[in-house]
Each structure stands twice: as C-alpha cells, then as structure tokens.
Amino acid sequence: MVILNPLPDGIRILRISTPEEALPYKASFAGAYQDIFSEPPYNERFFPSEAQGILKRYLATPENICLLAVRGKAKVVGFGIGVPAISKPDIARDIRGLLPVAHTYYLAELGVLESFRACGIGKQLVAGRLELIEHQKFTHVVLRVSAVRNRSYEMYLKMDFDDIGVYTEVHARRVDGRVSTDRRLFLSKLLSRRKRAQSTEDGEVEPFGTGT
Fold first, then answer.
1. Which of 9, 59, 140, 181 holds its CA 20 to 30 A away from the CA of 94?
2. pLDDT-flagged residues of the chain (< 70)
3. How many C-beta neighbours within 10 Å does residue 38 have?
C-alpha cells in the first residue's frame, strides 16, 4: 500500500494493490460505491457483495491502478480505479478502430461521496491514475461518463479530455428494481500531450461518479 497525497480534513489517497491490502477498506468501499451510483444520473442498485466483488475483480486485473480516498482509519470517501482497456472486452469492442486498444488505458471507476465533494478529491483521483499509468506502454486513456452532460463531463474537459462522439448503452439494475439501459459517452486523452492537473480550489464542483 502506498500513500500518494494528503488532502484537507485528514483525507489520504492510498494505492491498494492486493486483496489483502483492501481488507480493511472493502466494507466501506462497498457502502460508498452503493451510495454514489444510486444517485442520478445512474440510479443503479448494487448489493454490498456485488460492490465488493467489483473491487476484487479489478484488483485481480494485471496492471490495475486502484486508489482510495480514505478519512480516518478506514472510511472510504472516494475511489478511482483503472485497468488496461484490453482487459474489458466491451470497452475494447467499442473503441476498436478509434483508439489503439493494446495501448489504451481505461479509467473504469470514479466516485466521491456527496458530503466530500468540492475539495479536489475527484481531480486528485484522476490525476493520480494518470501519473501512475505506464506511459511507455499506454499512449491513450479512455473513460465513459453519462450522456447527461453533468459536472463529471465538465471536470474531464477541464483536464484536457476530448469528447470523441462515441456512445454506448449500458444495462443495469436501477434503484426501483427495474433493469434498463442508460446512454454513456466516451472521452479520451492522449497521454503524450497531457498537462499536469491543476489543484482544485475550494468550492469547485466534484463529480458524482463515473462507473463501469
């Protein structure tokens, strides 16, 4: 486990690399994951075991980057996870012909609890993963956000991501029990031209979440 950056209010950003390192945080991660993605625009319902399973699968993926924003001993208030795009068949399929799949890194998950937004955690979780990507191997970064142009979309544009105009439909169970689709769009960034993310000033909006 590596501590990357201290943040206000005693929050630390930790890099978790193994299931064993994740043990103290997995229950709190699951609660944060459920809370964040139950909000609009996703309105998704996850059971605790499902959220913990998502974390476990990502940690088992080679070349993963899993960052947790932790307050106090083990309260997870935010998370940012990334894996090679080739490890996600649906993502690889959607970007094939647009980006070099073998050299593209996928920022799979980002979320910050509502009460901890507007203090720079979201940007730190994005910037931290961008710095940790192996730039000799990966030339591009890609992610998905809701097609509803919300604060997450605006944050990524400010961090030099580009809207590549590609959409996909995601099936998910919603908080009302229905299974339905929502539209998401892809944003990408060329790593060789990246700019170091600027620190977020107090009061700047933070993302709801961007997910699998």
1. 59
2. 1-6, 193-212
3. 15
Backbone angles phi, psi at 71, to 5 degrees: -110, 140
The pLDDT tens digits for 163-188 are 999 999 999 999 999 999 999 999 99
Q: What is the largest CA-CA distance in the chain?
A: 45
CB 37 within 8 A of CB 211: yes
- H/E stretch holding 173: strand 162-173
pTM (predicted TM-score): 0.88
Q: Give me the architecture of the 2-210 domain, per CATH.
A: 3-Layer(aba) Sandwich (3.40)
**What pLDDT shows up at residue 200?**
39
Domain range annotation of the chain: 2-210
State the pLDDT at residue 116.
Answer: 94
Residue 84 φ/ψ, nearest 5 degrees: -60, 140
Q: β-strands 209-210, 11-15: how paired?
A: unpaired
